[in-house]
């Protein structure tokens, strides 16, 4: 059984509505442990770097402005199959397609303002965790 770590971000639409605790409860109920967490206000340049993979997409500018609009909560989640499990708990990118009980179904406002980010593969998880956290800040 593989214990993994994944990078999660509680996005500005959710921090603004004071939903951090409710979202963290969803992670913990699914068996994901929050082994690092910090509140940070990204600059638009930092958001752009984080989402560089999407730079050719039509929504890139809007996405970067949104992610820099208000503080976010960056976290490392740890557990068995944490990367896939977090994606399950998050639900589909577009909340209209998200399954009942998922974070995006319950809390997301739109496909853009969709409350959470989660890494999608082991390589991106490692890269995204190191974007936000130094090794000493992650306490498993
Ligand atoms: P996910 O966040 O589920 O991994 P993604 O990697 O395809 O989805 O896209 C990253 C973010 O970009 C997504 O959470 C919200 C935004 N986004 C994606 N598709 C969009 C669209 N069609 N219109 C506006 N924003 C979009
Ligand atoms: Mg993605």
Automatic annotation (TrEMBL):
Its annotated compartments are: Cytoplasm
Q: Which domain of life is it from?
A: Bacteria
Residues at which ATP binds: 11, 59, 87, 93, 104, 114
Tell me the SUPFAM superfamilies matching this sequence: Nucleoside diphosphate kinase, NDK (SSF54919)
- What is the first-listed, main subcellular location in coarse terms? cytoplasm
Task: Tell me the GO molecular function terms.
Answer: ATP binding; metal ion binding; nucleoside diphosphate kinase activity
* GO BP of this protein: CTP biosynthetic process; GTP biosynthetic process; UTP biosynthetic process
- The residues responsible for catalysis, as annotated, are 117
- Could you state one GO cellular component term attached to this entry? cytoplasm
Give the EC number. Answer: 2.7.4.6
- Give the protein's cofactors: Mg(2+)
Q: Could you tell me which Pfam families the record lists for this protein?
A: NDK (PF00334)
Catalytic reaction(s) noted:
a ribonucleoside 5'-diphosphate + ATP = a ribonucleoside 5'-triphosphate + ADP; a 2'-deoxyribonucleoside 5'-diphosphate + ATP = a 2'-deoxyribonucleoside 5'-triphosphate + ADP
**Subunit structure, as described in the record:** Homotetramer.
**General function of this protein:** Major role in the synthesis of nucleoside triphosphates other than ATP. The ATP gamma phosphate is transferred to the NDP beta phosphate via a ping-pong mechanism, using a phosphorylated active-site intermediate.
The name on file for this protein is Nucleoside diphosphate kinase
Q: Which organism is it from?
A: Paenirhodobacter enshiensis
């Amino acid at each position: 059984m593989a214990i993994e770590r994944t990078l999660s971000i509680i996005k500005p639409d959710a921090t603004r509505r004071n939903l951090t605790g409710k979202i963290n409860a969803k992670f913990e109920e699914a068996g994901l442990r929050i082994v690092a967490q910090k509140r940070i206000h990204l600059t638009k340049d930092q958001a752009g770097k984080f989402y560089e993979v999407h730079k050719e997409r039509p929504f890139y500018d809007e996405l970067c402005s949104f992610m820099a609009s208000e503080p976010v909560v960056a976290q490392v989640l740890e557990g068995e199959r944490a990367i896939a499990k977090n994606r399950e708990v998050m639900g589909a990118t577009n909340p209209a397609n998200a399954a009942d009980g998922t974070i995006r179904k319950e809390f997301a406002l739109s496909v853009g303002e969709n409350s959470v980010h989660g890494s999608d593969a082991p390589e991106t998880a490692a890269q995204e965790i190191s974007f936000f956290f130094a090794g000493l800040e992650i306490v498993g």
